[in-house]
Amino acid sequence: MGLPAKRRTKQSKRERSAHFALVEANLTTCSHCKRQILPHRVCPYCGYYRGREVLKLEQLLGKKAKKRSAASKAKADEARAGTSS
Ligand SMILES: [Zn+2]
Fold first, then answer.
1. Is the residue at 70 inside a domain?
2. What spacing in Å lies between the alpha carbon of 55 and ligand 1's midpoint?
3. CA of 51 to the centre of ligand 1 (A)
4. How far is the CA of 69 from the centre of ligand 1 (A)?
């Protein structure tokens, strides 16, 4: 293992770590399914982008995955209903 050539001061360590903070994702709502998605990206839940279906997710995914996504959607809807009430 390499050995640092010089001792790193408290200040230089802290200056470097000043940029380590995590930034909260800036989410937007999907125009089709109204879920929270990352901006400028195709919706991973419904495959829509700017009001147009660009990914046929149901064709891409198998029956199993479709079932799983339906279950996760129901779970998310349930969680949303729980937080709003
Ligand atoms: Zn969507």
1. yes
2. 11
3. 9
4. 13
Q: For the full predicted model, state whether its pTM sits above 0.85.
A: no
Q: How many domains does the chain have?
A: 1
User: pLDDT tens-digit profile of 8-64?
Assistant: 999 999 999 999 999 999 999 999 999 999 999 999 999 999 988 888 887 777 765
In-domain check, residue 50: yes
Whether residue 46 lies inside any domain: the answer is yes
Length of the chain, in residues: 85
Query: How far is the centre of ligand 1, averaged over its atoms, from the C-alpha of 22 (Å)?
Result: 26
Question: Does residue 51 lie in a domain region?
Answer: yes
CB of 31 within 8 A of CB of 50?
yes
Domain limits for position 57: 25-84
Residue 36 CA from chain centroid, whole number:
8
Q: What is the pLDDT of residues 54-63, one digit of tens each?
A: 888 877 777 6
